[in-house]
Design goal:
This protein is α/β, with parallel strands linked by helices and 315 residues long. The protein has 2 domains: 2-227, Glycoside hydrolase/deacetylase (TIM Barrel); 231-308, Immunoglobulin-like, CATH 2.60.40. The protein is built from 9 helices and 18 strands. The protein has helices at residues 2-10, 34-46, 54-62, 81-94, 104-108, 117-123, 144-162, 178-185, 220-225; strands spanning 15-19, 21-22, 31-32, 50-51, 71-77, 99-102, 128-131, 168-170, 191-193, 212-213, 227-228, 231-235, 244-252, 259-264, 268-273, 278-286, 291-298, 301-308. Helix 4 (81-94) links the parallel strand 5 and strand 6 (99-102). Helix 7 (144-162) packs across helix 8. It is globular, with a radius of gyration of 20 Å.
Length: 315
């Protein structure tokens, strides 16, 4: 009986987390205190979570291998100086691998609040250094030409300074839509990461991997309970031109599900009944923000769609 049940506990969904600043109380909304960081790392250790390399998880997805329910991947955006001065030693103390996504312009122009190329090269001995754009723009407010120019410039400098071509990319501010995603994929990254609440299964899209933010007020235990909800989004495809969201439509692969919860930024959580796995909700509400999230939740299974105003791509 024990052997029969063992796979239930071994396999499930992994989680990718993203940090920004460490022990820098000037920026509460993007900072993780050192006390909190140690608390989280001790929680992983005590509860037998295994912090693995991002590459390990991506390779498992590519090869359709089962994902270990205790796998955790740690990423850091923006190469802030506070990682070098405060966070780095904690990662080394716990022997936890990490991936830093580099805002290239900050290192190239030697911005004081960011790590230098020399520091990034030293860190690369212990973790992985990857790409986060040249100028850290709001990509949906850039034209196709501007996005491509930013990437061409940034990747050229990155490769010159680091001595290798980055394999992975994370969207600045976690912002993207179908137009931006299409352009980014042209640069042949092996994986692309967002900043949406969710979990990672063997069916996850390696060009749209969910990451939960561990900054400001965190909900680590809750985030670790989340599982990947297998869903096909149908409507909306893009931010509506008039700013009015008429309908949410999606298809669940599990047709036996009868009830779901859904969330829309600015309007909170609601429950509704569905039939045959088809979600079709009349909303008819004005979107409050330029960046909105639609979240579908069934029990602890969850999936997020980002709905963001695109200056050049909104239809």
């Amino acid at each position: 009986m024990l052997l029969f049940l063992l796979p239930i506990f071994l396999y499930g969904d992994a989680h990718i987390f993203v940090y920004h600043r460490f022990g820098d109380n000037r920026y509460k909304s993007t900072d993780t205190s050192i006390k909190e960081l140690k608390k989280e790392f001790n929680f992983f250790k005590k509860n037998k979570y295994k912090v693995i390399k991002l590459e390990t998880l991506i390779n498992a997805i590519k090869n359709k291998k089962d994902i270990n329910d205790k796998w955790v991947v740690l990423t850091i955006d923006d190469n802030f100086q506070s990682f070098w001065t405060n966070g780095f030693k904690i990662f080394k103390q716990f022997h936890y691998p990490f991936t830093i996504f580099v805002y290239v312009q900050s290192a190239e122009k030697k911005y004081p609040d960011y790590m230098s190329w020399k520091e990034l090269k030293e860190i690369n001995k212990y973790g992985s250094i990857q790409y986060h754009s040249y100028s850290h723009p709001h990509l949906t407010y850039k034209s196709d030409k501007e996005i491509k120019a930013d990437f061409i410039k940034g990747l050229k400098i990155f490769q010159k300074r680091m001595g290798f071509k980055p394999k992975y990319f994370a969207y600045p501010y976690g912002e993207f839509d179908t137009r931006v995603q299409k352009i980014v994929k042209q640069f042949n990254f092996q994986a692309i990461l967002n900043q949406n609440i969710g979990a990672i299964s063997k069916n996850s899209n390696i060009y749209n991997l969910d990451r939960n933010a561990l900054v400001g007020k965190t909900f680590l235990k809750r985030d670790l309970r989340y599982k990947d909800l297998k869903i096909k989004w149908i409507k909306p495809k893009v931010y509506p031109k008039n700013g009015i969201l008429k309908e949410i439509m999606a298809k669940l692969y599990n047709k036996s599900i009868k009830n779901i919860s859904y969330y829309l930024s600015g309007y909170g959580w609601h429950k509704t009944n569905i039939k045959n796995g088809i979600i079709d909700i009349n909303i008819d509400k004005k979107l409050i923000h330029q960046r909105n999230r639609i979240v579908i939740k069934v029990g602890n299974k969850i999936k997020t769609k980002l709905l963001i105003k695109d200056k050049y791509g909104t239809k």
